[in-house]
Amino acid sequence: MTVLVVSDSHGRNDNLERAILQVRPDIIYHLGDAQGYENELRTGCGCPLFYVRGNCDWGSDAPVYQVTKLGNHRIFLTHGDRYGVKYSNAELITAAEEHNCDVAIYGHTHWPELVKADGITILNPGSISLPRQPGRIPTFATIDVDKNGELHFTINEMKP
């Protein structure tokens, strides 16, 4: 099983559509800031979509976080703006621990990250549309679940 993880598409869906075609995911985690396109994503992605509200998703009724199980792991999904992620992962780690999650996935910074801290795997796919890291190449992540229920994380750059 493969999960496509994206964030911060900000209504610019060309790269998102390309990533879906490239990965052919079984599930999509969108970490917010689709800016009014979440319903289109839900109906057009062709697989289950977990969507959390970002700080630019005005009027959205999506939750600000979700907890889901993937393989042998519990995943905490959030946009990140309510957890101070631009400054530190400390609040994000605390929230994941409070929900008995060993993986925390967030967006908001437009900067990809994959680290392990305090026993929590932390993943940010970066921005699929408006990247901010050096080189400013749009990124997304994939999570592959192996036959033993273990997770394998990859941050991917959009191919031209």
Summarize the structure.
The protein is of the alpha/beta class. It has three helices and ten strands, in the order βαβαβββαβββββ.
Main β-sheet, spatial strand arrangement = 3-2-1-9-10
Order of helices and strands: EHEHEEEHEEEEE
> Taking Cα atoms only, what radius of gyration do you get, to the nearest Å?
14 Å
Q: Would you count the extended β strands for me?
A: 10
- Taking the alpha carbons of the first and last residues, their distance comes to 25 Å
State which percent range the strand residues make up.
25-35%
Q: What multimeric state do the chains show?
A: single chain
Low-confidence stretches: none
Categorize the overall geometry. globular
Share of residues in helices: 10-25%
Ordered list of secondary-structure elements with their pairings:
Layout (H helix, E strand, L loop, with lengths): L1 E5 L7 H10 L3 E4 L7 H7 L4 E3 L13 E6 L2 E6 L11 H9 L4 E3 L7 E5 L2 E5 L14 E7 L5 E7 L3
Parallel strand pairs: 1-2, 2-3, 5-6, 6-8
Antiparallel strand pairs: 1-9, 4-5, 7-8, 9-10
Essential attributes:
alpha/beta, 32% strand, five-stranded mixed beta sheet, globular, 3 helices, 160 residues
Architecture overview:
This protein is of the alpha/beta class and 160 residues long. 16% of the residues lie in helices and 32% in strands. The protein is built from 3 helices and 10 strands, in the order βαβαβββαβββββ. The protein has a 5-stranded mixed beta sheet with strand order 3-2-1-9-10, with helices on one face. Strands 4-5-6-8-7 form a 5-stranded mixed beta sheet, covered by helices on one side. It is globular. The model has no long low-confidence stretch (mean pLDDT 95).
